[in-house]
């Protein structure tokens, strides 16, 4: 009789040791879903990694034009404050308190920078189109040259059968 009670007790002990959901191993389906998500992250990173160093930087908005000037003033008034976040918060509060008339010069500067940026971008895009066309032409010319070389040497395709086959 005692032997059967001992077996029952061990089973109860196992039930009491149930692990929380977070500690359990993943099932097949959940593991597959996680694998798919990791692949997506890799492809997004690969797309983001293709930055051109020659591409013009986007122009700052009116707020950031204001913040450039505000930073120098704020640092003169508060030389002990080194935190960037403190300068940003103070700048944001100041920007909110400005009237539209006070914001106008910053918006004008931002518009001017935006027009310059658009000119640079059109020139950049034209340059990119030209380089893409040249690359396509060079690839075509390389393939034509390689085809001509094969014809000149008298090489013929015999269907992939070599004399050395055993």
Automatic annotation (TrEMBL):
- Composition bias (Basic and acidic residues) maps to 1-26, 104-119
Offer a single GO CC term for the protein.
nucleus
Q: Where is this region: Disordered?
A: 1-61, 88-166
Looking at the Swiss-Prot or TrEMBL record, what is one Pfam family this protein matches?
HMG_box
Q: What is its main location?
A: nucleus
According to its UniProt record, where is this protein located?
Nucleus
Q: Name one GO molecular function term.
A: DNA binding
Q: Which family does it belong to?
A: Belongs to the HMGB family.
Protein name (record): HMG box domain-containing protein
């Amino acid at each position: 009789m005692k032997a059967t009670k001992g077996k029952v007790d061990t089973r109860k002990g196992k039930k009491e040791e149930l692990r929380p959901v977070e500690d359990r191993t993943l099932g097949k389906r959940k593991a597959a879903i996680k694998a798919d998500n990791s692949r997506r992250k890799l492809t997004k990173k690969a797309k983001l990694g293709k930055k051109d160093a020659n591409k013009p930087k986007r122009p700052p908005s009116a707020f950031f034009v204001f913040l450039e000037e505000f930073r120098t003033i704020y640092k003169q008034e508060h030389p002990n404050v080194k935190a960037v976040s403190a300068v940003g918060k103070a700048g944001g509060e100041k920007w909110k308190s400005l009237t539209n008339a006070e914001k106008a010069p910053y918006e004008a500067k931002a518009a001017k920078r935006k027009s310059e940026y658009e000119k640079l971008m059109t020139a950049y895009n034209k340059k990119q189109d030209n380089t893409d066309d040249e690359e396509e032409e060079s690839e075509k010319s390389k393939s034509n040259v390689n085809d001509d070389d094969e014809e000149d040497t008298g090489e013929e395709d015999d269907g992939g059968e070599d004399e050395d086959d055993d």
